[in-house]
Amino acid sequence: MLSDIYKKPDFKIFRISWWNLIIPNVIGFIIALLSYPQGFQSASFIPFLVIYSLSIGIPFMKTYEYIEWKLEQFIPWLTKPNLRFFLTAFLEITIGILILTAVNYFIFIVIQKQEINILFSKTSEGLKYLIIFTIIGTILINSSHFFKSWKQAAVNEEKLKREKLAIEYEALKNQVNPHFLFNSLTALSSLVYKDQQKAVTFIREFSNVFRYVLESREKEVVDFATEKKLLQSVSYLNQIRYEDSLQIKIDLSDATDKYVIPMALQMLLENAIKHNSISVNKPLKVEILEEDGYVVVKNNLQPKKSEIVSNKIGLENIKSRYKYLSDKDVLVENINEEFVVKIPVLRIKHV
Amino acid sequence: MYKALIIEDERPAAEHLQRLINEVDIKIDIISIISSVDEALVWFNNNPLPDLIFLDIQLSDGLSFEIFNHINITCPVIFTTA
Hints:
heterodimer, A: alpha+beta, five-stranded mixed sheet, two-stranded antiparallel ribbon, 10 helices, rod-shaped, B: alpha/beta, four-stranded parallel sheet, 3 helices, 6 strands
């Protein structure tokens, strides 16, 4: 989130803001009052001070902005604060010395035609203040950035929590939905007569689904291996109910370093079953696979005749949760009689 | 013998219902099990009405109420749904 604050559009090297005009003058006056108060007796001192302050301050502030923006791309404050602080201070002070020397040379040697020795004394005197103000400035500016990003992170976390609760609620609702329970139990009682072994498996898979919901409730993300087990259980239950009319293919690896958000894939699978016509003549084919950094859920589109009431919570919720967790968006495509949802694979960076 | 028709999209559920019906009354003959609206429309167009219909509401291709828009059903209907 911190990188948002250093976005490029805010930065224009040739655009002078009122900050660029005011700050150098304020600092210039403070330094003059501290080190050379007798100068104010001369009438030409104030215009000189303004010109001197601006000719050092503007290039300095502009290069400062540029360096901050550039460094943020390679050494963000968030991950490497110490290195960043020293690098910023080092670069600023080096550049400050160059600007200071150049301006002093031009004003005192070229214009006022003073001796070359004066250049070193003026520059070393300026350097003292340069170091102090650079360090104070860096600390002030970046602590305000830190504060902003911290606030942003807190807001995002709150939003994420809310979205998570909503999807958890949706998933739980699906599972304890009387319709789902009734249909599953009906299928089970039929199995008990026909095939006891299958009935036992059915009960086991059924309880797996509930255990997963319980376990993943607390989690932000779940790994592929866990998610795959759930999908297999869910598809087993549906397979028993719909038999050959439903064909589910799960082609995910058992990776434990790749993640998705909990209950998302299950919800997409259940959505496909809910919204499409399923029959022996026109079986519904759902495929779940990994492809180019996405988990893809696709099915052949054969909408039911009567419109199914949909609150659209499921898909929208998945989309908005991914906004916080990934740079990539959830993609929904509806092409060639196929409905495809692509969910970015999450990888956890250990900072 | 009563002729009964089951319209239900999940086969295990249909089989379960069939078993229950037979337990209750062996004089009921399940003449067919149908799983979708489309299939039902075809069946009604080619067969006389049964004596009784066991009708699920959510069928594999839509709501079973759709059938009533096309077929004039005069026999008793028992809705079987969760």
